[in-house]
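Board notes (copied after class):
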Amino acid sequence: MAKNGDIMLKQISKSIKAVFDGLRTVFKHLFQKAVTEEYPEKRPNLNKNFRGGHILHNCRGCGYCIQVCPARAITIERKESDVKYFIDIGKCIFCGNCVYYCPAKSMEMTPKFEFANTEKEQLIVEIKNLKG
């Protein structure tokens, strides 16, 4: 019977120690400045290297961006002399390969990051329609 009492006492002491460890963590952070941002009331300060939405300028239509996209998010639609590039924002991983490998440097990434939508079809957009 003494064994059960010893085991129970050890479990109680472990539980009390865990509670005090948790309280110590709470009090340690209680008086520090909060790191939570008040989005969307306050806009976040983005790094200058932030990779957001895409913009296309003076494209030659070579298709390198399609070949280097690991997510297969970029598609092309050719009609006679008109070339349209589409990007599926739902698939895009914002890696920047399309911008980096473009031989004409005609693609650019902007700080735009708000692409949430309730309909999946609206996430497929023509790249030239994406504004910074």
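Comment from the instructor: The chain has two domains: 1-35, 54-129. The chain has a mean pLDDT of 86.
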